[in-house]
Specification:
Trna Endonuclease, Chain: A, domain 1, 18 strands, 827 residues, alpha+beta, 51% helix, Alpha-Beta Plaits, single chain, 13% strand
Length: 827
């Protein structure tokens, strides 16, 4: 049976039996329909061509008005911002973000107001540093002014995210070269640019910077007098202040109040305040006498002032570096430079270039996302600007770390994996071209899995998709298409002979590998810069001219690989996920917005490609909420680095026990056994689990082996042995499994032997994949006799245990045929 057919029939989804037939929610507005099935949403447009053309004409007419309205909103925002105190604006914006996101652990929980609060921070800071402040600045921000400004910003982004792209697309349709696929991709790129922040989980930011800044320790000391270690400590302190600072200051304030009240009560009881009647005067005197003024000022500065954000108070960074990474009000000249999209969020935001702001001689950081999303490339630019000759050195070091870090993460995911790094081979540099020396960044071998890893350390385009969409396409070509081609080139070499040689950079042989040794080969394109939303759609980029071919390519960032290394604790489960991830590449129905959606789908539905096929969707699917549990875990991990990860597939304890022992045993073939078990559906998993428990119970009472055989698409014969009660009988197990194969006419069957201790704990696993080839005639006749006795025994048991066997039921003998076409007419 071919692989595709086997997967289609065998790999059932855990929840397929309960898949929804009717939508959980349904909405219709004119010709537009929306239906929600669990965690995914289906949209449908029922407009006729005539209706569509009329609507498009109206949108084209409306487009200039939309652009004018956006310009007007930005102008009104600027007029307000330049007269208001910048420090109070940003402080209030930060506190509102904190308040609205206090209990938010997943991005799905962020509502419209929460999203607007984020823009009140990063977009308003971009306005402040791009526009000259007015001569007269108000002392404070009133409630009315804040509400008005917040409404303007919310309306601006709402219009920019909906009305503007809809009208823009209608206008672009008039171009002779209009391409709807390019248009859809450009729209998504603009949406990500304006709205998506947080390239990695906050708990992974410091590990990321530890990796990428380590090679540049000397140049940091030379130019700024700060070591890599000191820089990382400063970043940690900034992160702690902006994430844990509020909780800490509230805790400190409570302790301060309790201590003051205790001391106050003590003095009142001793009548030390005979000359004072005002409680405020009494409190002031207690603080002065106790020497607590500095403590009081520290709390007030953090709670009511700007000390939580003051970089010279929360961290130790040299002023020279702070200057390089800070804007002053009105300093940036590009954001409001005359031209298209003046001041629009579609331009490069100033906070993307410099995350800090300098106000009245102090340096502040109000937004962690602006800092951590852009800091690495910002540091690169300031170093190269001060020391241009360091540019090639930076690139070399960046390439080296970009290749080493993913290998270390894969080694964590796949303990004991065999790694060939910087592999050279002699092959065609292009189809039909001459042979030359080529390089593969790394080959990772784990049993019958081969991962061809190609790394791209280059930066994803820094320009806005609205200003230079071609650069976006070029970046994708460089970061996705090129490594995919390089991986396929090595695969061509691997398939060119029975065995191929591997060489080092000096062209000395370092090993040999053979294509026949690998059941699964994965081309993995790893990038340093995260572009998760785009990488997750790599198989669909063919529509915009980036065709990686039909062979699956796994495009992933180092950040996402780090996520996987924190979640998967069993290498066999991780390999099974890769197998399913590659099947998803070949599915037109699986279109996710994030690489981690695949992980969420896998944890929820196991073989999620099958789950989607069985739903038989008629329209595009919007996946919704599949990253929520992942987000919550890493939110918890930010506050507790030792938080236990419970993100696992729901599987019976006995099955998990088998998979875990297979992984620790490292016996050859354990990957294939684990994948077969993990591919099985919920019914089969329950059957195996209950069969093990029944066998152990039966054997403890009768002292006789009780086998379990599964039929159909999952072909396993299982025996349970137990020390001190029933020792292993390999010969009996083998003959029984082969007899079952004769009945079912299997080409291959897994014989799985489990050995338990006296307490029922699994302690050993033996397995073999059986075929009937090579069995002697004498042995075959003996097996046929055993098979016939087994067939009769099964039929008799079925007749004794159940009602009369129906003609159209599956035959109890296990052949997989209907009873009427199998044992009905046999004696």
């Amino acid at each position: 049976m071919g692989k595709r057919k086997r997967n289609k029939n065998q790999a059932r989804n855990l929840a397929a039996k309960k898949r929804p037939r009717r939508p959980d929610d349904y909405l219709r507005h004119g010709p537009l329909e929306m239906a929600r099935f669990g965690k995914f949403v289906v949209w449908r447009n029922n407009m006729s061509e005539e209706q569509f053309d009329v609507m498009q004409g109206k949108l084209v007419e409306h487009f200039p008005e939309v652009c004018h309205e956006i310009d007007n909103k930005i102008s009104r925002i600027v007029d307000m911002v330049k007269t208001l105190p910048s420090d109070e604006l940003l402080k209030r914006a930060y506190w509102e973000v904190a308040a609205r996101n206090l209990n938010v652990e997943s991005e799905i929980d962020i509502d419209h107001d929460g999203a607007v609060s984020l823009r009140m921070l990063d977009y308003i800071q971009s306005i402040i540093v791009s526009v000259q402040p007015a001569e007269a600045i108000q002392d404070d921000v009133t409630e009315e002014q804040w509400r008005k400004l917040r409404t303007l910003v919310g309306d601006l982004f709402s219009q920019l995210n909906t009305e503007f792209p809809i009208c823009q697309t209608a206008v672009n349709r008039k171009d002779a070269g209009f391409n709807i696929d390019f248009e859809e991709f450009r729209f998504k790129a603009q949406m990500y640019w304006c709205n998506v922040r947080g390239q990695r989980y906050l708990c992974h930011d410091i590990p990321f910077f530890r990796d990428v800044l380590s090679p540049h320790d000397e140049v940091l000391k030379e130019l700024y007098g700060i070591s890599k270690k000191e820089f990382l400590e400063a970043l940690q302190e900034i992160q702690d202040s902006l994430t844990l600072g509020i909780g800490k200051v509230v805790e400190d304030l409570r302790k301060f109040q309790n201590d003051v009240m205790a001391k106050l009560d003590e003095k009142i009881e001793r009548k030390d305040f005979a000359e004072l009647n005002d409680p405020l005067d009494m409190t002031k005197k207690v603080i002065e006498e106790s020497g607590w003024e500095a403590w009081q000022n520290d709390i007030a500065g953090r709670f009511f002032g700007l000390d939580l954000f003051d970089l010279e108070k929360v961290a130790k960074l040299p002023r020279l570096l702070l200057d390089e990474l800070s804007w002053e009000p009105g300093q940036d000249a590009e954001f409001f430079k005359e031209g298209e999209y003046k001041g629009w969020p579609l331009r490069i935001w100033p906070v993307f270039k410099r995350p800090f702001i300098k106000l009245k001689g102090h340096y502040y950081c109000f937004d962690l996302y602006s800092l951590f999303d852009n800091l690495y490339r910002s540091v690169q630019r300031v170093i190269i600007r001060k020391k241009p000759g360091y540019d090639p050195i930076w690139n070399d070091k960046q390439k080296e770390l970009s290749e080493q870090v993913p290998i270390e993460l894969f080694e964590k995911l796949l303990p004991g994996v065999q790694v060939y790094q910087s592999v050279y081979y002699h092959w065609h540099t292009r189809p039909g071209g001459i042979k030359d020396w080529c390089e593969a960044d790394a080959l990772l071998i784990y049993e019958d899995h081969l991962i061809i890893m190609e790394v791209k350390a280059g930066a994803f385009t820094y320009t806005s998709p609205a200003a230079d969409f071609s650069s976006y396409i070029k970046s994708l070509h460089n970061l996705v298409f090129k490594p995919a081609e390089q991986g396929k080139r090595f695969l061509g070499y691997l398939e060119s002979d029975d065995e191929v040689r591997l060489y080092d950079k000096d062209h000395k042989e370092i090993g040999k590998i053979s294509r026949k040794d690998f059941k699964h080969i994965t081309i993995c394109a790893v990038t340093l810069d995260p572009f998760t939303e785009l990488a997750a759609q790599v198989q669909h980029l063919k529509k915009i001219g980036i065709d990686v071919g039909t062979r699956p390519v796994w495009s992933i960032s180092i950040d996402d690989l780090r996520v996987y290394s924190d979640i998967f604790d069993n290498p066999l489960v991780f390999l099974h996920f890769i197998e399913e991830r590659m099947r998803a590449f070949q599915s037109d129905l699986i279109q996710t917005e994030d690489e981690l959606d695949h992980l969420g789908l896998y944890l929820k539905h196991n073989i999620y490609t099958q789950y989607v096929r069985e739903l038989n969707p008629k329209g595009p699917i919007m996946w919704h909420g599949y990253r929520s549990d992942i987000d919550r875990y890493f939110s918890e991990k930010l506050h507790d680095s030792k938080a236990v990860c419970h993100l696992k597939q729901d599987m019976p304890a006995r099955l998990k026990e088998i998979i875990d022992l297979l992984a620790s045993s490292r016996k050859l073939g354990c990957r294939k056994v684990a994948s077969m078990l993990l591919d099985s559906d919920g019914r089969c998993r329950d059957q195996i689990t209950s069969g093990i428990n029944e066998a152990l119970d039966h054997q403890s009472r009768l002292g006789k082996a009780k086998s379990l055989s599964t039929h159909g698409n999952v072909k396993i014969t299982l025996f349970c042995w137990q020390h001190g009660r029933l020792e292993r009988d390999r010969k009996n197990a083998l003959e029984h499994a082969q007899a079952v194969m004769l009945i079912t006419q299997d080409n291959e069957r897994l014989l799985l032997e489990l050995t338990f201790d006296t307490f029922g704990t699994l302690v050993d696993i033996d397995f073999a994949f059986l075929s009937l080839g090579g069995i002697s005639d004498v042995a075959l006749q003996r097996l046929k006799a055993i098979a016939e006795a087994l067939r009769v025994k099964r039929i008799d048991k079925a007749k004794q245990t159940h009602r009369e066997i129906g003609r159209n039921e599956l035959c109890p003998c296990g052949s997989g045929k209907k009873y009427k076409k199998c044992c009905f007419l046999r004696p």
